[in-house]
Structures are given as structure tokens and as C-alpha cells.
Amino acid sequence: MKTRDRILQASLTLFNTQGERNVTTNHIAAHLNMSPGNLYYHFKNKNEIIYDLYLQYEALVDSNLKLPEDRPIVIQDKLVYLKAIFQGLWDYRFIHRDLQHLLLNNDALHQRYHLFFKRCLHQSQAIFKRIREANIIEASDEELSTLSLNTWILVTSWFGFLHTNLLVKNTTEESQELLEAGIFQVFALERPYLTEAYRQPVADLAASLGPSLDELAMLK
Length: 220
What we know:
The protein has helices at about 5-20, 25-30, 35-40, 45-65, 75-90, 95, 100-105, 105-135, 140-165, 175-180, 180-190, 195-205, 215-220. The chain is an all-alpha fold. It is about 75% helix and about 0% strand.
């Protein structure tokens, strides 16, 4: 593995497990048994590392939101989309754990993220329109726009919700199971728009996901 890639991989691990604010470039260099000077040869500062990791995350999300080209969309596709999106949230969880802080401290990242948001919103609307074409939901274009935005807000704020409501107190208490409980909430957003033929199939699909947030909170 190239040194630059090793730095990114180690940084992602440390940011995810210890929190980005608690990790310095010296910590990253020490983790890699590398001199700080060698690290600075590849990245001038921590913001550059964060920006490159964000680009990886952005590319992952873009690839996960592609529509099938050779067939109609089916209800299982929605679960595939959500599983992939929430897996990305977990793999790059430091980003959404403290997103406002990251954006305020990195102008280039802030500008890039704004474009990313608009692109994701547009692609989400395209997915919902294909779901409507498959007669899985009934909704106007305006309702689909609102549903797309609300889905974005829910997904991108889910980590913050877990922390601010003390379901997760620190990075060691985070779990992929708790994170993926957010998929239930996305299904709940869409429930009022389901056609009669798909109400039960979608309910069965949601039930196959595992414990809901209510059930996990009771366990805690």
C-alpha cells in the first residue's frame, strides 16, 4: 500500500474510534511508526486528510445511489439502497458524528459538501420517481421532493440524534446495529405513500431488518 493510502486508512480508523477532534497528525504518525515530517510530505495538515477521506465517502455514496438501467425498480432495491447508505455512514462515521464542526473548519469541504447535498437530493428524487413508476408509492412531484429532503435530513442527522439523546454517550458505545435502526425511520417516512398492494410487503421487509430503535433502547 502506498504511504499516502496508509495515512488515510490509519486516519479513518483513529477518527472513527477516538473522535476526529481527539486525533492530531502526531497521533496518526505515531500510529504508523512514521515521522511527522514524512506525514507532512503527503498532507500539509489534518484538514487535507479529512478532505481526502470525505472524497472517498462522497464517491461511495454516489456509487450507491445509481439506478438500475435494465429493469424496473423493486421494493428490495430500497433496502439495498438504505443498507449501503448506512454502511457508508458507519465506515465513515466520524464525518456525520461532528459534521458541522468539520464544515465550519474547512471552507473547501463546506463548498464541496453543498454540491454533494444537491446531487444526492436530485438522485434521491429520481429513485423515488422510479419507485412511483413501479406503483409502489403514490405521491405528487412536490411530495416526492419533500420526502427526498426529509430522508436526507434523517439519514445525515441520525448519528447526532443517537448522541444528543444519550443512546450513545461516546465512540465506544456506537454500534452498527444502533445506526442501522435508522432504516426503520426511513421506512416510516414512506409508509403514508405506499400503495395498498405494497403495504404488507414493505412491512414484512422492514420487520426483517432486526431490532428497532425502541427495542434497542429498551435493551440499554
